[in-house]
From TrEMBL:
An annotated GO BP: amino acid biosynthetic process
Record-annotated active site: 298 (proton acceptor)
Record protein name field: 3-phosphoshikimate 1-carboxyvinyltransferase
Pathway: Metabolic intermediate biosynthesis; chorismate biosynthesis; chorismate from D-erythrose 4-phosphate and phosphoenolpyruvate: step 6/7
Entries under NCBIfam families matching the protein: aroA
Length: 418
């Protein structure tokens, strides 16, 4: 499905969608806890639905109550399970170790580019701990129970491997150790994991070798998912490029690393006002920036769009892992900027954008079934002179199902070509 986006001036009020990162983690902790948990504002993104389905396959019972869920924890894990991760890398990498901790003989399947996203670090870690694994991609099958202490996992490629292992060790209870080799990347996401485990009564402490995991998972009874800074960033950049956008239901003290979009917008010259639960962004004279994006990979496409409209040369570093996302996001971000009529280039570790105050657009931008590229493309296309056509417009359902409706409600003009 294609979206033809017309030049538009966006303004208005947007409610932030629930944080996908927090939702995944709360669901898993609740499924492994001692009693039921009500999770408020869980959202309906495809990725979160994949985790719900995966946990049900592993023995949890999850009831929908409008925008909330009640999670009844796993009491008797099934002997075997088929876990469909759809296109969710988080679901896959979090639930492989969890299934091993539960002793479930599980087969993991998925679709799209998920089969190409690496899981070798988990395969190696679990294999060394005595779990039998068949396959290096999808489908991937595991057999055996994770019981070893002092498991070692490589944290240099993705923090999701570490998160999955932390949940697996927490599920076993007691006092456990996780060794992490290599550089620990995306530490803000690990902070979310540690925060959720703490809310469920498990204390995770960083050590020189990795982490200690102490305690048993105990339900807080009720918990609420806070607003998502990653997806709020798209409309925040809309405000910087055209009118004034206010986004509510955002925690200004959030552990989400993508909260950094506020300082990036300020550095680029946008007018930003932040309150107790909102951020308001208005257009200003934009200027080039330099940003290390290693800890905020999900922001790169929309930050690149922002810099395309900022006069001067912007440099985004720490982007090597973008090649392993829902698309080769490194290459596709450059093509996105070019599709807007801008100039950009990339090496393995950085993206360079030569920004201009106005871009013509008028081209077709390949969404490559990547939700963040599609949304960033819509933001940029609305700010061009001629607009642009974006393919795979339906990819937004992965994280922001109502994106196009909210885009229209704030003044964005588009037509869908089914």
């Amino acid at each position: 499905m294609n979206a033809k986006v017309f030049p538009s001036r966006l303004s208005g009020r947007v409610e932030a969608v629930p944080s996908k990162s927090y939702a995944h983690r709360m669901l898993i902790a609740a499924a492994l806890a001692d009693r039921p948990t009500r999770i408020n504002r869980i959202g309906r993104s495809q990725d979160v639905c994949a985790t719900i389905g995966g946990l049900i396959a592993l023995g949890a019972t999850i009831e929908r109550k409008g925008e909330d869920v009640i999670v009844h924890p796993v009491s008797a894990p099934p002997a075997s399970a088929l876990v469909d991760c759809n296109e969710s890398g988080s679901t896959l990498r979090f639930l492989i170790p969890v299934a091993a901790a539960l002793g479930v003989e599980a087969t993991f399947v998925g679709k799209g580019r998920l089969a190409e996203r690496p899981v070798a670090a988990l395969v190696d870690a679990l294999g060394q701990a005595g779990v039998r694994i068949e396959g290096t991609g999808l489908p991937l099958s595991i057999c055996g129970r994770l019981t070893s202490d002092g498991v070692e996992v490589d944290g240099g490629l993705s923090s999701q491997y570490v998160t999955g292992m932390l949940f697996a060790l927490a599920a076993q209870g007691g006092n456990r150790r996780l060794k992490v080799k290599g550089k620990r990347v995306s530490e803000s996401y690990l902070a979310l994991t540690i925060d959720v485990l703490a809310r469920f009564g498990v204390r995770v402490t960083a050590t020189a070798e990795g982490y200690t995991v102490v305690g048993n998972l105990r339900s807080p009874g009720e918990i609420t998912v806070e607003g998502d800074w990653s997806n709020a960033a798209f409309f925040a950049v809309c405000g910087a490029l055209s009118g004034t956008i206010e986004i509510v239901n955002l925690n200004p003290h959030s552990l989400q690393g993508d909260r950094r979009i506020v300082s990036i917008l300020e550095e680029a010259g946008a007018a930003v006002e932040a309150g107790d639960d909102f951020v308001r962004v208005s257009a200003g004279k934009l200027k080039a920036i330099s940003a290390d994006c290693e800890q905020i990979p999900d922001l790169v496409p929309v930050v690149a769009v922002l810099t395309a409209f900022a006069e001067g040369r912007s440099v985004l570093t720490g982007v090597a892992r973008l090649k392993l996302k829902e698309s080769d996001r490194l290459t596709q971000t450059v093509r996105l900027i070019e599709g807007l009529g801008g100039a950009a280039s990339a090496t393995e570790h950085r993206i360079v954008v030569d920004g201009q105050s106005a871009l013509q657009g008028g081209q077709t931008i390949e969404g490559t079934n990547d939700h963040r590229l599609v949304m960033a493309g819509a933001v940029g296309a609305a700010a061009t002179t001629l607009g642009a056509t974006i393919t795979d417009a339906e990819a937004v359902h992965k994280s922001y199902p109502d994106f196009w409706e909210v885009f229209e409600a704030t003044g964005g003009r588009y037509e869908l070509d089914v």
